[in-house]
Amino acid sequence: MRSLPALTSLRVFETAGKCLSFTKAASQLNVTQSAVSRQIKHLEDYLGVPLFVRRHHRLELTAAGQQLLSKLEQSFNLMETAVQELRDPNQRQKLTLLFPPTFATRWLAPKLADFHIHSPELQLSIHNNDSEHNIFDCHIRFGRTARPNHYSELIMLEQHVAVCAPNLLEQAKQLNGNLLHILHEGQRLPVWENWLQAAGLTGEVDVNGGMEFSTLDQVSNAAINGAGFAIVDKRMISHELKMGTLVPFSQVEVSGPYGYWLDIKAERQGLAKVIRFTEWLRQISPD
Questions:
Q1: How far apart are CA 74 and CA 273, in angstroms?
Q2: In the chain, what is the straight-line distance between the N-terminal and C-terminal CA atoms, in Å?
Q3: Is 83 inside any structural domain?
Q4: Residue 230, Cβ neighbours under 10 Å: how many?
Q5: 111 near 284, Cβ under 8 Å?
Q6: What is the pLDDT of residues 2-30, one digit of tens each?
Q7: Of 187, 182, 207, whose CA–CA distance to 197 is shortest?
Q8: According to the model, what pLDDT value does residue 182 have?
Q9: Are residues 141 and 268 part of one domain?
Q10: Residue ranges making up the domain that contains 168
């Protein structure tokens, strides 16, 4: 038997905690303000801690209130999903994913036929913008470390290779400053510095010049058209390497330190569709 306060009190608190107003919460819940106050008082008495600090004409959550609100939001979202799945069987089969554009286009898209064979009952909804106010089941993220307060698993590290257009191979023997750089969160990724160090060429090439691009697609297209030399993840340019539009000008490869991480919020981890996707992703991901 679970030891819990009344569900009504928890629901009222969650609404009031989001609004930071008993009046607005009462309006949303179609009850009186005094009813909201009573439910909050009952919950505070049950817990033995204050949940709100009552300022002049405004409310603030206490540390305990912030902690409880965060957990309740996750719990109510999970309950809402469970109910929606029963009311709408199609919703149960829809997997909403947030991916970086490059990863989705260059790595995931060629493998979607295999996913359909693995999980034909699941319908994918793939997004690359987290401002779309969707509740995402899984998030693939480019980064260096695990994400706090999530189940966070490294899917694969980048494997950087040095490439250029075939007609620039001779020039690549003496890198002349036509370096192509990828930006991440407004900063150049240090892929050139890492590669030059691994190649034993630190200090012999000026990495401060060159051109900057916000996406790998831009870098790849610039390199294909002879704009310069690039250090890129070989998995993301497998098509170009196969077709010969980009060719390696060195055998030196550098692993990481950036990679792609699978992040799942606590309230989504137990969903069957999330488990199915995670299993498939592990099967196709490189070691």
A1: 18
A2: 44
A3: no
A4: 29
A5: yes
A6: 677 888 899 999 999 998 988 899 999 88
A7: 207
A8: 92
A9: yes
A10: 157-257
